[in-house]
Specification:
Largest sheet: 4 strands, antiparallel
Structural class: alpha+beta
Strand content: 15-25%
Shape: elongated
Helix content: 25-40%
Oligomer: single chain
Number of domains: 2
Number of helices: 17
Strand order of the largest sheet: 9-8-13-14
Radius of gyration: 25 Å
């Protein structure tokens, strides 16, 4: 049973067979490599090979940073490094072990991480033995660590070297080089639910890889090309204003619609995201329309939303205004204004990267008396953080054309 296998990792310490993870197999079919590399659940690392130093055997990101400082520093700024934060930790308090492992599959995928959390949470299938020396005590709280992608059976695995000399390195007893690390299928393990995965209104809750496959970018640019440029370990997305700004083009129009009536029209085109904008239900992008007088007085006219809105139970779709890659969508708003030229139409584009989480956490906190006491502090921290993430992406203005 999967749960049993992951829970007893420290006690078993079983060796791992990496059939496809050889220099020859690593350069073979990326699909086959990815399927084995992301087997579910991931097996334990097993006994440390003879000759491997304590630093080389360690699964700690800090250990990797001793020889790969740039990648380590970049990773620390990424959402991958915060994949196990208050937003997940409070939910673990209300889940059973099987439910939790479905989340940890991506948020903390190593068997050693699951074992640590099983011990912390006192789950039934937890190892009795302490963690091996190569497993730091805080490994589970560090999220998607370097080893989650790069270590299997204590063997280091990575992309094809950019220089022939790099392939001759003897560190870690050598490493497996594979083109799979530059293949979008490598990212699909966490960024694409299987066909039988959870759906809302018939749509997979996580469908990013298939959105990319159906986009004009497929075959031209991989996930890594946009989210890991020059192999930087940043994985920037909608939380980052520069990345978001490169994804869309926004044009504001203002046209008369009768006596003192006008129509504001925002045309938003997805020019840079290789998937829907935004890709799934959590983020929202607000188009906030306002009439601004010459003296600066501002009258709000209304807000329209780009995104996939569902209820907090993930059962019902409220709206879906996402924009597929290469497509555009028009957002219109009719309003009344003075028949003079002393005002302008203003459009603020405001990004709310954690909108769905904010709604969910707020509703959950309202049920505080029914939650385990240990869930409340991380829940409040998660809500507080979600409220800090919105930002204004851009602001446009358009003056009316008033006939004499």
């Amino acid at each position: 049973m999967k749960l049993h296998r992951a829970g007893l990792v420290f006690a078993l310490g079983a060796a791992v067979v990496l059939g496809a993870c050889t220099p020859e197999g690593g350069r073979g079919d990326p699909a086959a490599f990815v399927a084995q590399h992301w087997s579910d659940p991931l097996p334990a690392q097993g006994p440390v090979p003879a000759g491997l130093s304590a630093l080389e055997a360690s699964l700690a990101p800090q250990a990797c940073g001793q020889c790969h400082p740039a990648q380590w520093q970049q990773w620390q700024t990424s959402l991958h490094a915060r994949a196990v934060g208050p937003g997940l930790l409070w939910q673990l308090q209300v889940m059973d072990q099987a439910e939790a492992n479905r989340c940890l599959r991506c948020h903390a995928p190593l068997a050693e991480q699951k074992a640590l959390l099983a011990q912390t949470m006192a789950w039934p299938a937890r190892p009795a033995a302490p963690a091996p020396s190569y497993v730091p005590e805080d490994l589970a709280l560090q999220g998607l660590v370097c080893a989650a992608c790069h270590v299997r059976g204590h063997r280091r695995i990575g992309p094809l070297p950019r220089a022939a000399a790099a392939a001759a390195s003897s560190a870690h007893g050598g490493f497996v080089a594979t083109p799979a690390f530059s293949d979008s299928r490598f990212c699909a393990h966490c960024h694409q639910f299987p066909d039988d995965g959870p759906r809302t209104a018939g749509k997979l809750n996580e469908d990013t890889y298939e959105q990319w496959r159906a986009s004009p970018f497929a075959g031209r640019r991989s996930c890594q090309d946009c989210h890991m440029p020059e192999r930087r370990h940043l994985w920037r997305g909608i939380h980052d204003a520069e990345t978001t700004r490169s994804a869309i083009d926004v044009v504001l129009h203002l046209r008369p619609a009768g006596t003192r009536r006008f129509v504001a029209e925002a045309v938003v085109r997805n020019v840079g995201a290789g998937h829907h904008f935004p890709t799934y239900m959590v983020p929202k992008v607000e188009l906030q329309f306002a009439r601004v007088a010459r003296d600066g007085a501002r009258v709000a006219l209304g807000t329209q939303v780009i995104g996939w809105s569902v209820d907090t139970d993930l059962r019902h779709e409220l709206a879906d205004t996402r924009i597929p890659a290469g497509a555009s969508r028009r957002f219109e708003l009719e309003f009344e204004a003075p028949a003079t030229a002393d005002w302008e139409l203003e459009l603020r584009v405001v990004v709310r990267p954690d909108e769905h989480y904010e709604r969910t956490f707020t509703q959950s906190l309202a049920q505080a008396p029914r939650l385990p006491p240990a869930a409340l502090a991380p829940l409040r921290a998660a809500l507080a953080h979600a409220r800090t993430t919105p930002y204004e992406l851009l602001r446009l203005r358009q003056a009316p054309r008033i006939a004499n």
